[in-house]
Design brief:
The protein is built from 17 helices and 15 strands. The chain has about 550 residues and is of the alpha+beta class.
């Protein structure tokens, strides 16, 4: 039952919770303050009544007319008039003047005099000559009496001959207190009304700020937002108007090599590189830029955040273009491999058609000669590849390129001096396809304008490195262009070219290898590739970290 009540309470809106909490606090505070004011007002009323009773009793006891009336019995009317006027001025309930034996003047209601007669509180004043205030009875019927002795001067001495008793009924004090409490309650009510109104306005303002969402919904949104933010593979960084980082996901940290807690820090402090920070800083408004960072090509897009047409921050979306580039390279090389296979198939079809034509024409001898020559040429090249090159991946690449060379009328020769044992597992097919495929295809392109189109391939694995060498008899590379051939996008063959040698160099860096180029204008070009059989530890760790 208690759990159900708690669940119902949790379902109450935040506005109602705040309103209920504030009203409860206001009631508690107003109640405590009201009780405190009433208590102190009551004490003040009692103290004031005691002081009035005591001072009035003393004043009357010092009056000569009172003393004369007590000694001689004369001027009784004057004394009664004084007592009556004093009673009106001080608003006391009653005044009694007594001798040692009896009351001389009783200016008080009968209910008061009867109770006073039954409580001889003036004895202390008669015996000891003291003035004091005494409480008679209990509750609302209680009497508060101020008693003062009346001294008579006999020349050589003073003697107490009577007492003056000034009486307050507690009911009268309570009535005065109630009149004061009306003001206190009115002030408390006004404070409570203003407090309730203020709490309602506060609750409404909070609800507007939270877009009408309840705390549970806000918490759920925050959890979902955090999970979604961190699950996005693109890098995301959020900053405020002062470029203080408000949010960053794991992908952004990985792309920018950030390994510390950066929330709350400035973008300038986190991005220590001036070039990287400049790329972000220049995107003050919506825009896109591209930059290089630690060998990665990153694209950053900014999207400003506005609140009521005022810019309050920016979200940066970071895309690692390196992955896309590598995927494009991979697709390109796979496509090239497929083209080589297609060329091989096409070349064999053409030869079969020639053979079929010769047979249909009855030229059997020519057909046999054609088969013999083609078989000898193919067999010779295949024997070199299959007997000297023992790695199946390289065999497949070279056989495909042989077919492509035949289709393009290029004499592609694999050196009979080539040797190659099966390559280590660290050297996969795709890197080999990118490296050898680009170099051989570039060589084919280089000899297109030549009368005798010749491209040769040589390999050896003697020592600690695997060596591949691709040579063509093309026009060569001018000396002024030679230093730029490995730069991305550099090419004299037209637009969207110049990526082949760049990709070759990138793959060789991953394998810990290198490439050299020698070229003489008019004599051809030779590309030499070195790949270590065993990856260096640094490169291995780098690969594992990546």
């Amino acid at each position: 039952m208690m759990k159900n009540k708690n669940k119902r309470f949790l379902r109450v809106s935040i506005q109602l919770k705040i309103l209920g909490l504030v009203i409860s606090l206001l009631l508690l505070i107003v109640g405590i303050l009201t009780a405190t004011f009433i208590y102190f007002d009551y004490q003040e009323g009692i103290d004031r009544a005691e002081e009035v009773a005591s001072q009035t009793a003393k004043t009357l006891s010092y009056m000569p007319v009172v003393q004369e009336t007590l000694m001689t019995g004369d001027r009784m009317a004057d004394t009664a008039l004084v007592v009556e006027n004093l009673q009106k001025d001080t608003k006391v309930t009653g005044i009694v003047i007594s001798s040692r034996d009896t009351a001389i003047i009783e200016q008080a209601p009968e209910r008061v005099t009867d109770r006073l007669a039954r409580a001889p509180e003036e004895n202390e004043a008669l015996v000891f000559g003291n003035s004091y205030v005494v409480s008679i009875g209990e509750g609302a019927d209680r009497l508060l009496a101020g008693v003062a002795p009346i001294y008579v001067d006999y020349g050589d001495y003073l003697k107490v001959e009577g007492t003056v008793t000034v009486i307050f009924e507690m009911s009268v004090i309570f009535e005065s207190l109630l009149r004061g409490m009306k003001l206190i309650f009115m002030a408390a009510f006004i404070a409570l009304v203003f407090g309730i109104l203020g709490s309602w306005l506060l609750a409404s303002d909070i609800r507007r700020d939270t877009l009408g969402l309840e705390p549970k919904e806000i918490a759920s949104l925050y959890r979902d937002r955090t999970a979604l933010f961190q699950s996005i593979r693109d890098g995301l960084i959020g900053v405020d108007q002062d470029e203080q980082i408000t949010a960053i996901n794991k992908a952004a940290k990985k792309m920018l090599d950030i390994h510390e807690w950066v929330k709350g820090k400035s973008l300038r402090e986190v991005l220590a590189s001036d070039s990287v920070y400049g790329a972000f800083h220049q995107l003050a408004e919506r825009g896109t830029t591209e930059f290089e960072h630690n060998g990665k090509t990153l694209v950053v897009h900014s999207e400003p955040i506005f609140n009521d047409s005022k810019k309050v921050g920016t979200v940066f979306n970071i895309l690692d273009k390196t992955d896309i580039r590598e995927m494009a390279v991979t697709l390109t090389e796979v496509k090239q491999y497929s083209e080589d296979l297609r060329a091989q198939t096409h070349e064999f079809k053409n030869k079969l058609y020639v053979l079929l034509g010769l047979l249909q024409l009855g030229k059997t001898e020519e057909a046999v000669t054609f088969i013999t020559e083609e078989s000898a040429g193919q067999q010779s090249q295949a024997n070199v590849i299959l007997s000297n090159i023992l790695d199946e991946k390289v065999q497949a690449i070279l056989l495909g390129k042989s077919a492509k060379a035949s289709e393009q009328k290029v004499k592609f020769q694999v050196s009979a001096d080539s040797t190659l044992e099966p390559l280590p597992e660290s050297i996969d097919l795709l890197p080999l396809l990118i490296i050898l495929g680009n170099l051989i295809d570039n060589a084919f392109d280089a000899v297109k304008q030549q009368t005798d189109r010749e491209v040769s391939f040589f390999s050896t694995d003697i020592g600690n490195d695997v060596l591949f060498e691709v040579t063509d008899n093309g026009a060569g590379i001018p000396p002024d262009r030679l230093p730029h051939v490995f730069i991305k996008g550099y090419s004299d063959k037209g637009e969207d070219r110049g990526y082949g040698l760049f990709n070759v160099e990138q793959e060789l860096e991953k394998l810990g290898g290198g490439i050299e180029v020698e070229s003489e204008p008019g004599e051809g070009t030779t590309f030499t590739v070195y790949i270590p059989k065993k990856q260096r530890e640094t490169e291995k760790r780098k690969g594992e970290a990546g």
